[in-house]
Amino acid sequence: MTNVYFVGWFSDLPHGRTAEAAIRASIGKLPGGEIDRIVRYLNHGTVITETTGAVLYDELAPERPEIGAYRTATDGEFVWPSDYPYYVEKYAVAVPDGLREKAMHGLPRPLSDAEIDTVVDAILA
Amino acid sequence: MASLARGVPVAEVWDARRRHAVAWRVTAMSELQAVCDALRAIDGDILQMAQQLHVKSQAYTRAAANATAAARSAEGEGAAALARTAAAFSAAARHCSLAAQSLTGASRDGEAYVQRTVGGGSAVAMFRGQHAGTGDISDAASAWPGEKFGLSCSMTNNGGINLLPPTDDAGQMASEVEALPGFTDVVIHGNPYDFGTRDGPSLTAAELGEVIDGTASLAHRPIRLLACKAGHLEGGAAQQLADCIGQPVLAPSDSVFLVGRPGRVRMVVGPNEFTNSGHWRIFRPRTVGAGS
Fold first, then answer.
1. If you count Cβ atoms within 10 Å of the first and of the last residue's Cβ in chain B, which end, N or C, has fewer?
2. Averaged over A9-34, what is the pLDDT?
3. What is the dihedral of CA B201, B188, A115, A46, to 10 degrees?
4. Given CB atoms, is A16 within the 8 Å cutoff of chain B?
5. Above 80 in pLDDT, residue B134?
């Protein structure tokens, strides 16, 4: 069975997970040449979570501009919130090696129901 | 032109053409009216079929869940066969759900056509008429209060109302959550203070109350609000709505996360979808003068 990894829920974000690293400690950890491909990859994941009103803001900017509606996307292995590509693009925050590697080789493929169910079960476990 | 006018005064030719045009318009309008009447007549059947398909979809979903559970406790070829059965049930559930959505959409398109052509019905009149038990949409035709706030309206799979536009996937996913007996769902974006859509204006609790009171399938019923943080504050959006509509309102204390895919959506209330730490709070209408 494929392992599922959660990335981008930095512990110091309002929607973060306490076990994750702080976003402020993750800034500038990504080589500039990879950012565009990674952002494009992240923006093409399969959306598996919507909300009825949760909005994400740039928590690193003093004026906290709105990033957009909260969503969660996945490629079947990695799972990320919809502000993750924003932070990658604007602040070059850290991206796990496995995800970087995948992003260098194309876009996420569409997932089957069974693959989505596996990720959802991991989220709700 | 010369042959047309030969021996006949020009004025008479034009008058004949005008009469012909008027007669054609009358005939055309009559035919359009007949089409619209037919659409209205079959609209109830379409929605009934949609509801039946939804019930079948739920039954298939339950069957798929049972088969999946059985597969987990089985071994070898038996487990594989049960897994295949679960997948087949799941696919059937999904197809039924999609068919129900398609029928609901056809109904909505038909009503929109009637409205454009002969007037006399808003996009939600069908819900108003049907759920009011009249079966007649013409008397529910006066402007639906949601229109002035730019709201859409579609029926959720459990008989509630989704006020989000079809382009908002949150509304589609929220439309698939399991019903809570005794409450009718209202799907809309929310926060502790007011309501709205992602790209439209915000609505006060009083304005949403006006929409609910003007929608027969919602009026005079306890409401479950699928709206983020609507129940976060003691006297906030949900309490104000309960006061306005005079009915109990069940609302989430935190954000509402809809996790899954069409045919299998689960709901979490919390700061993220990993943390189901929120809860549903009941807000009962306060009588006038209470607490003052």
1. C
2. 95
3. 0
4. yes
5. no
The helix, strand and coil proportions of chain A, stated in percent and rounded to the nearest 5, come to 35, 20, 50
User: Closest Cα to residue B262, out of B51, B99, B52?
Assistant: B99
Min mean pLDDT across A102-106, A111-115, B2-6, B156-160 is at: B2-6
Q: How far is CA A26 from the centre of its chain?
A: 13
Task: Please name the member of A15, A114, A120 whose beta carbon is closest to the beta carbon of B260.
Answer: A120
B218 has a chain A CB within 8 A of its CB: no
| Residue A50 to chain B, least CA–CA distance (Å) | 5
Q: Does the beta carbon of A72 lie under 8 angstroms from any beta carbon of chain B?
A: yes
Nearest Cα of chain A lies from the Cα of B183 at a distance, in angstroms, of 18
Task: Supply B124's token pair.
Answer: 């939600």
Distance from CA of B85 to the nearest CA of A (A): 13
**ipTM for the complex shown:** 0.95
Cβ contact B170–A52 (<8 Å): yes
Q: Which residue has the higher pLDDT, B104 or B153?
A: B153
How confident is the model over A64-118, as pLDDT tens digits?
999 999 999 999 999 999 999 999 999 999 999 999 999 999 999 999 999 999 9
- Residue in the block written with tokens 């993220």: B272
- The first and second tokens of residue A29, run together, are 């950890």
Closest chain B residue to A120 measured between Cα atoms?
A: B260
A84-91 and A35-42 helices cross at what angle (nearest 10)? 170
d(CA B282, CA B73): 39
Asked if the Cβ–Cβ distance from A113 to B257 is below 8 Å, we say no
**Amino acid sitting at position B120:** G
In angstroms, how far is the first alpha carbon of chain A from the final one?
Answer: 15
Position B1 pLDDT exceeds 50? no
β-pair partners for B268 = B257
